[in-house]
Amino acid sequence: MEMISLAQELRENSYPGRGILIGRSENGKQAVTAYFIMGRSENSRNRIFVEEGEGIRTQAFDPSKLTDPSLIIYAPVRVLGNKTIVTNGDQTDTIYECMEKGMTFEQALRTREFEPDKPNYTPRISGILEIENGTFNYSMSILKSNNGDPTACNRYTFSYENGLAGEGHFIHTYQCDGNPLPSFEGEPKLVAIPNDMEKLTNLLWLSLNEENKVSLFVRYIDIETGKYQTMILNKNE
């Protein structure tokens, strides 16, 4: 697979929706993940990321303007032992609770499907990073309607063993802007992962459409020690 420019990919797409990035830093020492949200409606744009335990949660920036919390208020990131779960919805909790009971990432997601937001039927995208004894593996998933037909759910899981230094994969909910919004297609995109967390954070934030971007989370995890650093940017401050 050819590596693409992450900055160019984002700058040329005004509305990829919500996106997950997972990979390994160029020096091989850090497991890296990022998650961003965008919005077209006032309700979707009225959000911020806040830290919650080892993870994060979305929160209304102005509670008086919150009209429907069902698909926009959730915990995108939770940590279960040596596993970091990143998703675009409340399936974060499903994965956490099922894996706590001994189920796999894929088994947990078999209990869920795309979002019920007709006519978009927004895909549920999910990722998991697992660090153990100096090794780093990760998986990504997308659950989506069958070309806009909600009677069928198409399920795809992509697993990456021993993620290579300087490489990551990027998946997002929508191909582009539209009415209805077209679901992401194909495999997660191969992108470069730098050593510098601030550099990656700035690249993502500055490349996202200024009108539609809402919040960004970036985390670098030391593969040897499990210690991590986090950056959060919110358009609403």
Provide an overview of this structure.
- This protein has 237 residues and is α+β, with helices and mostly antiparallel strands.
- It has helices at residues 6-11, 42-45, 91-100, 105-109, 197-207, and strands spanning 19-24, 30-38, 47-52, 55-60, 77-80, 83-87, 124-132, 135-146, 149-160, 167-172, 189-192, 213-222, 228-234.
- The protein has a single domain, classed as Inosine monophosphate cyclohydrolase-like (Glutamine Phosphoribosylpyrophosphate, subunit 1, domain 1, 4-Layer Sandwich).
- Strands 11-10-1-2-12-13 form a 6-stranded antiparallel β-sheet, covered by helices on one side.
- The longest helix is centred in the last third of the chain and has 11 residues, at 197-207.
| Radius of gyration over all CA atoms, rounded | 16 Å
Q: Supply the helix-strand structural class.
A: alpha+beta
Parts with pLDDT < 50 across at least 5 consecutive residues: none
Mean pLDDT: 97
Number of helices: 5
CATH class: Alpha Beta
CATH level-two architecture: 4-Layer Sandwich
CATH homolog superfamily: Inosine monophosphate cyclohydrolase-like
- Structural domain count: 1
N/C terminus separation: 39 Å
- Largest sheet features: 6 strands, antiparallel
**N to C succession of SSEs:** HEEHEEEEHHEEEEEHEE
Form type = globular
